[in-house]
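Researcher: Batch entry, complex prediction.
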Amino acid sequence: MDFTAVLAQIKPKLGCVADNLATIEEQIVKAREAGADLIIFPELALSGYFLKDLVPEVALRTDSPEIRHLIALSRGISIAIGFVEETDDYHFFNSALYLEDGAIRHLHRKVYLPTYGLFDEQRYLAHGESFRAYDSKFGRFGMLICEDMWHLSASYILAMDGATTLICLSSSPSRGIEGDSLGSASAWQKLVSTTAMFLNCRVLYSNRVGFEDGVNFWGGSEYIAPSGESIARGSLLEEDFVTARVTEGALRRERIFSPMMRDENLFVTMQELQRIAHKRGQ
Amino acid sequence: MAGLHANTDLLRKLLVGFVRDEVRKVGVSTVVLGLSGGIDSALVAFIAAEALGPENVHAICMPYKSSNPESEAHARLVATACGVHFSVVSITAMVDAYFDVFSEADNMRRGNKMARERMTILFDHSALLRALVLGTSNKTELLLGYGTLYGDMASALNPIGDIYKSQVWQLSAAMGVPTEVIEKQPSADLWAGQTDEEELGFSYRQVDQLLYRMVDQRLTKPELVADGFESDFVESIYSKIQNSHFKRRLPVIAKVSNRTIDRDFRYARDWGK
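Model: Structure tokens for the complex:
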């Protein structure tokens, strides 16, 4: 089914859930008025990224008033959004919700928490333990949060689970000033394009902008067609509101033209992975 | 080499954005900085003028009686070129009053005192003008510890602390910093005829090549020697970085509680911004 997606390239305020919720609601209203069917926010859009000890202060349960408000807003437009999730057993996850028709359609907890270089997520957050595709009004989707996408297996699992659209919520910092373009932006652009091509999937990538303690987030939110072609790309370093018209025909044609996913041999993959797991366990 | 080559359009956008965003998010629209007549502070003045509008940038030149008059002339030239407010506050009276009491002090103590005197003037103007103090130390000098702790190393925000001197030259040319300032010998102007490179014993271009490989690329000592760097040079720069590390950290706090500031009490400075 054809649909229009908005990639809301916003600049969250660090640790200010109420302010961010207000910004998010404005964007939702704007997207709905523009006739969009789906709006995708960045990773940790409700809280900001370098939270450190703020994690428990900004965390929300999925039955919190803030999340319930967003669930209600999803009656008019489907919403994908990142936040810190607090569970009944007081674990804190870097999570993404997919909200549709006034309900939570899917919850993804970031599996790969980067803890190297400028990242320190594992110190503050618990890691998720699954990648599951889910059905939305617009087809079968899979959600990834930033670093998840740098693990081939994550996108692969979602694609094998039937996802034809991958949504990635991101807070990717700028670094690398040597080349024609920003180093981290070029790396991501290659990644999303290659992932789309390998898996014959669309990719909807939503990245934030703004600075936190001198670290810049580069934006460049992007819609990649299943061919790997970039169809729409947000501006670098500045807030943006990227509208992407996603067509079913392009997906169908690509899957006929390059039927790699049809031919993918899950049995061979499983057999070899089980052999490797068995060997490692010895 | 590629690593020290900067895409100046991109770098300019990042640093201008940094100043604009980090200044305004604390509810301030004005900055103050010390303008020495050298390239680092000239570049920061240009970045700030572009980020906030020159009318929101206050540059203060703070000469001592032995400072080279050319420094003040260059500072004035830079301020005119980027259109920022410019004033001169001499530090001679304050510094001399102190060293009348400690007349035996050597050049290093005198230089440090001057740098700290300038810092107090900038932070006083920060209160006077409701302005944030911009730092002007580049990555080369921060890594080498070639600066005065709580003197020129003190600031609220430093736009150029992650770019090497070699990149400061490139960006300065791209942003229109006056040629005389770009081309002159770098000097802290602490005493007559002083140049950084003579005092340090190597050139910035030379040490930047090493620092980039050692710090950014994390090459090992044997790899650096294999790349053509003298073993003694590698050792001495490594020691300089190690021995000046205290200058790049907050004071060490004795831990006795469960939550010690910056150890297990951790918040971004932009908390709530």
